[in-house]
Each structure stands twice: as C-alpha cells, then as structure tokens.
UniProtKB/TrEMBL annotation:
Keywords: 4Fe-4S, Iron, Iron-sulfur, Metal-binding, S-adenosyl-L-methionine. Residues 2-253 form the Radical SAM core domain. It comes from the Bacteria. It comes from candidate division WWE3 bacterium RIFOXYD1_FULL_39_9. The keyword Transcription regulation does not apply. This is Radical SAM core domain-containing protein. Its cofactor is [4Fe-4S] cluster. GO terms for molecular function: 4 iron, 4 sulfur cluster binding; catalytic activity; metal ion binding. CDD domains: HTH_ARSR, Radical_SAM. It holds the Pfam family Radical_SAM. PANTHER family: FEMO COFACTOR BIOSYNTHESIS PROTEIN NIFB-RELATED (PTHR43787), UPF0026 PROTEIN SLR1464 (PTHR43787:SF11). Gene3D superfamilies: Aldolase class I (3.20.20.70), Winged helix-like DNA-binding domain superfamily/Winged helix DNA-binding domain (1.10.10.10). InterPro entries: Aldolase_TIM, ArsR-like_HTH, GTPase_Obg, rSAM, rSAM_sf, WH-like_DNA-bd_sf, WH_DNA-bd_sf.
Length: 319
C-alpha cells in the first residue's frame, strides 16, 4: 500500500499521501520524529518497490477523480531516497495534470543537481530547516555521517534559484536547543536568502522517539515568530482543528485500512484520526476497539491523551 488517504491535513487541506519507502528509512534520525527511530540511516537512493505497482495503485485511486488539494510525497522517511520519486512525479504530471503535487522533505539530498532538476515540476515543496549551527543540527537531526549542514543548505539555495513553485519552510522548535535568539537569528539569515512564500513553525504534538523532548509553549513560538519578521511566519502546531460534522461513507474495511495506514506512519489519538479521516469519533472508536481486540493496534496514555499505535510500533518511543 503506497498511498494513504485522502486525509485532512492542517497544512495541506485534503491530501493523498504517497509513501515510496520502507519504514523507517531516512538520512536523518531526528529526536522529535513521530515515526520512531531511523532503522536505516542512509543517503543511498534505490527503488524500494516496483514502480509499476506504485503507478497502478495511484491510477486506481486517481481514476475515481477524488477531490484533492494536493498529492503529497511524505510518509515514514525521506521521500527523495527513492530513486523513483522523479519518475512518479513525471507520471502524475503527464496523466493527472489537474492535481497539485507537494513534497515534504528534509532537503538533505538537494546537493545533487540531478535530484534538484527532477523536483522542479513540483507545485509545492516544504523543506525543513531546524538548525544552522553544526552543534544544534547534530543534536536535533542526528544526520548520516556523510552529511553536513553547509552542504545541505547550499543545495537548498541552489534549488531555490531554479524553482518557481510554492516554497514553504518548516522549522520544528525543540525547547532548549533551537529556540535561542542566536540560533533563530542564524535560521532567519538563511530563510531571507531563500525567499520562502511561507514559514511554518511547528513543535511536538504527539509522542516521539525521545521522551525528554517537550513541546514549545505558544508564548515561545510567538517570540520566535516575531524574531523571524518580516518573513511570512505562521504557527501551525496550535492551529485550529478542522471542524468535523459529517462522515465519509466508508465501509468497515475501508475505515480499518485507513486507520492502519495512518498508524503505520505516526501515532494518533481518536480525535486525530477523526479529523484526518473526516469521520465521527464514535465510528473511529468502534474500529479502534475491533483492531485492538484483534491485536493489530495498542494504546498508551500520553500527556495529550490516549495515543494508538500499530502493535509492533508501540514500544519504539520507550527510549
């Protein structure tokens, strides 16, 4: 299953997710990652699945003409590690041109001019910049040994010179590490060179791989927002939840598959699943009960409430 959704995203509206990787393959091992510890820390690109299978699944979904704001490459690792990414983007542009295509990326492979060129058809790219100083970058993002922050930022700057689509930057704030005036000032200098259409401030909203990481306060994010001005900055971690008064017409199997597809990539509360799947909470509860009774998922009490996990992922946050 290479697609998940369509889901309701607080950033991208109605989005069909596309995951071209096996979990958890990434070039970074970020301490705040909601997908858990990186088990395959790599900068080597490869095909993780037969590309024809991916295209066939996309066709089955998109031939039904779903209402989407974006088709989004994201998932359980760094999407650009799939050497099929550019081919799938090209296929979508050629066969489903009415849909906008987005990429959520850590930007670590944009030093490669071939990759940069292949991503130019994107309608939206959202690279993350959590740090500029070497020490903070190493502490937050724990990169592959062959990566360094200067190489990453130079690649991103080169990409921006050629890219004409929407360009947003995500900054994930980890209190005590990248929330200092010094670090935010350094990030601001880089962002000014990149001329983003938007900067999104984010912080911890669900369990991550490291227990000591805590969310930044709203007051702290407001101060950072002010420090980054005049850049266009929005705080997304405290954004208003999407109102959910209606319910999709999904079968029980479709509901269960949707829940599993989401929990495969991130732990979620009942409320999270209700918003993402656009379903009434009572129906989500019923599916969760059945899935848990069958041993497919389990739950844990966290500071923000009860979070559900795939059963084999539940202990990844106990670090």
């Amino acid at each position: 299953m290479y697609t998940f959704g369509p889901v309701r995203s607080r950033r991208l509206g109605i989005s069909l997710g596309v995951d071209l990787l096996t979990p958890k393959t990434c070039s970074l091992d970020c301490i705040y990652c909601e997908c858990g510890v990186t088990t395959d820390l790599s900068i080597d690109r490869k095909s993780f699945f037969p590309i024809q299978n991916i295209i066939e699944e996309l066709s089955r979904v998109l031939d039904k003409n779903p209402k989407l704001d974006f088709i989004t490459f994201s998932g359980s690792g760094e999407p650009s590690l799939s050497k099929d990414l550019e081919k799938v983007i090209k296929h979508l542009k050629n066969h489903y041109p009415k849909y906008k295509i987005a990429l959520l990326t850590n930007a670590t492979l944009l030093f490669d001019p071939t990759i940069r060129s292949g991503l130019l058809p994107l309608d939206l790219i959202v690279p993350s910049i959590d740090a500029v100083s070497v020490e903070i970058f190493q502490k937050i993002n724990k990169p592959h040994p062959k990566l360094n922050i200067d190489k990453i930022l130079n690649g991103l700057i080169q990409f921006r010179k050629d890219y004409n689509g929407m360009f947003w930057i995500e900054i994930f704030i980890v209190p005590g590490l990248n929330d200092t005036i010094d670090e935010i000032t350094k990030i601001k200098e880089v962002c000014l060179n990149l001329s983003p259409n938007k900067i999104q401030l984010n912080t911890l909203d669900r369990p991550c791989q490291t227990n000591w990481v805590k969310p930044a306060s709203f007051e702290s994010l407001l101060k950072i927002q002010n420090l980054l001005q005049p850049l266009p900055v929005e705080i997304i971690s405290f954004s208003k939840k999407i109102n959910n008064n209606t319910d999709k017409c999904l079968t029980i199997n479709q509901t269960d598959d949707g829940i599993i597809a989401i929990l495969k990539r991130r732990p979620s509360t009942v409320e999270d699943l209700s918003i993402t799947l656009n379903m009434k909470i009572v129906h989500v509860h019923k599916s969760l009960k059945v899935l848990e009774e069958n041993g497919l998922i389990e739950h844990k009490n966290e500071s923000r409430g009860i979070f559900y996990y795939l059963a084999f992922n539940a202990k990844k946050t106990d670090l």
